[in-house]
């Protein structure tokens, strides 16, 4: 009913002010209501500015998927023969007809768009709320998040000209909501530091690791070598959002205490976008950024590491940042070989169309030889740290089949961390590479949690690593943190060390990991068979032998993974 009244109002307005015949409009995207936790508080100010993005129809996205799988599947003749930037751009570039049609529509409305990607498949422009309502037959209003008080301008439905339906995939921000519950790990001070007790033997894990995880513990648990990497081209990238800054003084203190075998001056390079910065004022250091940098540099010995700080010069929420960092890396001639990200949100906050476009962007980077890893989330089957649910909430982007999702373990010997998010996507179907492993799990699960998840969805996480009682240095103090935020950089470091050896042997980096992980490397993991990930007033999923939606295939065994990679 709202949409009908908007259309009538828009037609009346145009009849008075625009002699051009009104294009026939057609509903393009809609949602029944705001995600749980958001309340509509009133109309948005007509003069408020929206930074709009238009996703144009791509030339051959199916061809991109085929090409990605061809270079990522170990038994393929083209395995490891990754694509160039130019190769990938050809798959996603819009047709000349699409560009002409969309730009003509914008020009009719006195708008000029700027290409946001090298392939030209995203356009951007700024517009007032009043103009956006007219342009899209929408009603942009202000929503407030009940817990945080954060406000955001969104609409529950919008239309585009009917003749542009085949040219435009989506307009954003419209029906996708930000993630106000994005949280960084909680920092706690241990009663006593166990650093001095971490004296390793070749065949034992120090007793201290049962309560405090350090790089030495990870080296013992996963047989990670301390040998220094040698390949300068083998870059490991750490993404940073929400003004989380990685502090060099904290890193030096961390290395001095926990990696005394490498120079305490070892540091990282910096890239920025969207107005990102990386303040070195120690009181502004971020827990998440410090964790991610300390457990990449501190585990991936000698691997060149870059911290990519994404600022907030976009509309709001993290999705624009997720899109911008991938488009930024897709635009580079030589993108990093590994990218780790410890942020995410519930899948139900995002339009399925936007989720798919972000997933396509991950395909682009994966086809060029980059392994993309994301933390799976810290709310068990309740997604991103929420319990207000009756059915399980998958997280995004873990449901995307073209990245690697990392869950968490705790304790020695390892068991599932109860907070480790995992489950089944409601947007993405199950990819063939995990079909056998997931089907086996579902058969053993039986009727447990029946009706609470999508049995046909892409299942996650794919793998796991330690995520509890992890020791870091934060603003000069030593303390412990927990979350899958710990697990993703740890696993990313292991992949980077394998890449270093592959490149030294004249071979390609692993690139998109999942076809390799679920086939050749399926037995190269420590199987986690205890624990579960409760949420939504249930016990969640149980960890069982083989793959499970708590710890995936398990935690890494470095020598076994190296052997699976053919080294």
Automatic annotation (TrEMBL):
Coiled coil (UniProt feature): none
Role noted for this protein: Secreted tripeptidyl-peptidase which degrades proteins at acidic pHs and is involved in virulence.
GO MF annotation list: metal ion binding; serine-type endopeptidase activity; tripeptidyl-peptidase activity
InterPro entries noted in UniProt: Peptidase_S8/S53_dom_sf, S53_propep, Sedolisin_dom, Tripeptidyl-peptidase_I
Signal among keywords: yes
Annotated keywords: Calcium, Glycoprotein, Hydrolase, Metal-binding, Protease, Secreted, Serine protease, Signal, Virulence, Zymogen
Protein known as: tripeptidyl-peptidase II
Entry note: cofactor: Binds 1 Ca(2+) ion per subunit.
Reaction equation(s) it catalyzes: Release of an N-terminal tripeptide from a polypeptide
SUPFAM superfamilies, alphabetized: Protease propeptides/inhibitors (SSF54897), Subtilisin-like (SSF52743)
Subcellular location, principal: secreted
Enzyme Commission code: 3.4.14.10
Biological processes annotated in GO: proteolysis
Binding site for Ca(2+): 527-528, 546, 548
Ranges of residues in domain Peptidase S53: 212-567
One Pfam family of this chain: Pro-kuma_activ
Cofactor(s), names only, from the UniProt record: Ca(2+)
GO CC terms, sorted: extracellular region
Signal peptide: 1-17
Catalytic residues as annotated in Swiss-Prot or TrEMBL: 288 (charge relay system), 292 (charge relay system), 485 (charge relay system)
Gene source species: Cerrena zonata
